[in-house]
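Ticket reopened. Same input as before:
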Amino acid sequence: MKQDRLWRAVTLGPTIGIFLALTVLPIASLVAMSFHDVTWVQGLPRWTYVGFKHLAALPQDYLFHAGILNTLVFALSAVSAQMILGFCLALASSKVSRGQGVYRAIFIAPILVPGIVIGAIWKLMYNYDFGVINQMGGLLGLMPRDWLGQKATALLSVIVVDCWHWTPFCFLLLLAGLESLPQDIYEAGKVDGAGAWGELRYLTIPLMVPTIVVTLIFRMIMAFKVFDEVYLLTGGGPGTATEVISFTIYRRFFTEDRMGYGSAMSIVTLLLIALLIVQATAAARRWGRQP
Amino acid sequence: MRPAAGGRAEAALHGGLTLAATIVLFPFLWITLAAFKTQIALLSGAVTFTPVLSNFRDVLFSKTSEYLHHFVNSAIVGLGSTVGALVVGTLGAWSLRRMRWPYPVSQGLMAWAIVFQMIPPITMVGAWYVMFRTVGLYNTYAGLVLAHLTLNLPLVLWMMSVFVAQVPVELEEAARIDGASTPGLLWRVVVPVIRPGLTACGLLVFILSWNEFAVALNLTAKQTATVPVAIAKYAQEFEIQYTQMAASAVLSIVPALLLLLIGQRHIVRGLTIGAIK
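Engineering reply: fixed in the latest deploy. New output:
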């Protein structure tokens, strides 16, 4: 019995220890830092209390505004495109009688590649002088464009890269969902004379709602974290055209060495994300209950 | 298996899927070709060119290049954090399932694991940076291993919790009656049963660590920088050697592609279980 108690502590202890020391404590320290100016003196941080200075400055920060706005635009448009594309691909590959394994192996490749490398590849492909995208456009008689350097196309170009990177993820989860649907319902549908469209509209989509909701929420959460591709492709520019919130925090905290202010921004961002997720989950629940 | 669509419909589906597969594969193909070109061949946009190996040679073996060093860094951090996260997370998941922890403890931990997954790493790394620099873990392998372990622990906890629950309780009780100690029970009964789960989870966590950038960027300096950090620095240099950048990109994908070839089944399962359960 005594031994049991020991092993209980030994097995769960490390998890609790890591959660406390490396997740709870850092978040607490972020909260504390957002009321301080932090400077380094001989390798140790010196905290100077500044009250609500940082939090009060946030609403006036144009980069913070741009970061939040762009992240929302980015997440909503990229994720909806990926969900639609991913669903079509999953549906198509669940219907073919041969070659499904090959398609799936190819489609998951982008998920496994480092985001920064995907950024590097596409940065070369978007290149004004020798990039393949301008070359192909040239074949169609289009003028070359500086895709990442122009305000009008920069965010869209980043969204395209994100779709290439993450549509496979939606595809994979939605395919797993499609494959686990009960088959007898489709037999019944056929007996009742449902065509392909009726089958999709009245059987597949309603049955897939839970999977769709989970995939959507997952991808949304991941999209709010976007950093790697933006860092490499545009660095937030031109101007603030592709400034996403993770990049703004990075810039303020690390590049400008304003740790107190960066912490305040981090905490407010966390609160905003929490609010958004609570709202989105509630909305998804309502939607899931409807049909 | 769903009954197959008719002949013409099937052909249309294959057409669409092949188009999608081409779009997925094209960037890989293009960057690989670029890696074999000279700078002049790339800039001139010539379709035909004589392939050269000089880019790979320069990236891997030139005096000024530290690519291999970064590669080793990535491997150390990836292996260290994967093994760490698997051990800590599997023990934790088993404990929560089998050791009769009070409801608030188990539910609280699992819920916190989900909440933590939602937090952008860039917000955590600020706090880690200040903590690690204070205690001397900044720019060390140990620091980045701990950070990656923490980032991936929630995923391991959730995935392994699914697999651990599948170990028959009767099996564990029988081992207990035969006098097995807790470590003996874990090592000889639980681990063999959950081995496929450990493989799937381990592959996924290693790839996540290998690919991670935002945290590695801010917790490492030159000696401990991982491959993504090195590539990002490279891409920002004033005079970019585009073809060398292509070569280093190609080289950095190799481990993931190898893992995909060897363990596609496991990776698919890891990704879907990690998300759905």
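Chain B touches chain A through 92 residues (CB under 8 Å). Chain B has a mean pLDDT of 88. Please confirm and we'll close it.
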